[in-house]
Amino acid sequence: MHKKLIAVAVVLAFMVAAMAGPAAAQDGKKPAFKQYTAIVDYAFVAKYAKMPQPKDVMVIDSRPYKPKYVEGYIPTAVSIPASQFDKMTDKLPANKGALLIFYCGGFDCPLSHKSAYAAEALGYTNIKVYAAGFPDWKKNAPYYSIGLENLSERIAAGDQQLVIDARPYKKFLEGAIPSAVGIPEKDFAAKRGMLPVDKANVTLIYYCGGYACALSHKSAVKARYLGYKNVLVAEAGYPGWKEMFGAADTGAVMAGEAEGAVDTEWFLATIKSNPDSILLIDVRDPEEYAAGHFPSAVNMTVDMIEKQAAEIPTDKPIVFSCASGARAGEAFYLFKDLRPEVEKVFYLEATNSFGSDNSYEVHPNK
């Protein structure tokens, strides 16, 4: 009789543990909220949270859009906060058989479970909850995504980071997020020397042509393979940046004393307050550029300018810069010879020094 009681107790213990689910296994306590019936882990989610996106799959972040989602989310995830679920059902796929994966802030967070039940009530039949949520993703995944609001704050704060445009170089020259450098995904191997030497402390933030663009995601994976520890993707990309913060204005340029030179004080004020209003091209060698440069400058050597002059956008003033003004002046005269129809072309007649954090000192040449 005693042995039978022990056996029954063991069976009951296993039943209680199974009913408690993953959240209870995390801290030994059963959550106060009703858990969803279908729980999945990181390995399951990783099969679907990738680019290009699998068909009929939607990963959904149930946390508040601000501050949580914009600070970091699972790649490809759509923000549908649990508190706004009833108002945002139009974001859900039309196919009621599509796979929906909800997540939120971890085992103690009820939001993803609440949203899963709400989706089930709407008739969706293939619903999962990633109960470990975003904290588990950050722990296991090679990278995660951030909102443009967060990227803007990082740029303004001057964090130790490198913003990288993974689009083709021509697209980059036509317009880019302030402080970004152009390293096209297809040229990743050839241009990896432009990446910072410090792989542990510098954050790499990739972007490309918007939510449907896979180039930033591919580059992020390659960067992690090279050993960079902190890699992020701004999925909204340059189209999202233009929509949220506006495109650059192309104002008048104040000329300096020498032929073709730009006024130094005007230049410094412009790159500080309105850097997108000019196309600033650093003509130094890639190694010099990688060691430090004006935050809004793109890198094209004089040889590259000679070969690609026809591809350089002319919808806003062009300013060439270098270390001493010599190569910048050479680029100016070369470009004027090749593109005589372009009027707003200048160079910076100054001696410039740069820090590894892209700080700079500019001294006009006398």
TrEMBL record:
Domain (Rhodanese): residue spans on this chain: 53-146, 157-250, 274-351
Gene3D superfamilies: Rhodanese-like domain
InterPro entries: Rhodanese-like_dom, Rhodanese-like_dom_sf
One protein family per Pfam: Rhodanese
Signal peptide region: 1-20
Protein's UniProt keywords contain Transmembrane: no
Top-level taxon in the UniProt lineage: Bacteria
Any one GO molecular function term: thiosulfate-cyanide sulfurtransferase activity
Keywords: Signal
SUPFAM superfamilies: Rhodanese/Cell cycle control phosphatase
Protein name, per record: Sulfurtransferase
Organism name: Pseudodesulfovibrio indicus
Lineage, highest ranks first: Bacteria, Pseudomonadati, Thermodesulfobacteriota, Desulfovibrionia, Desulfovibrionales
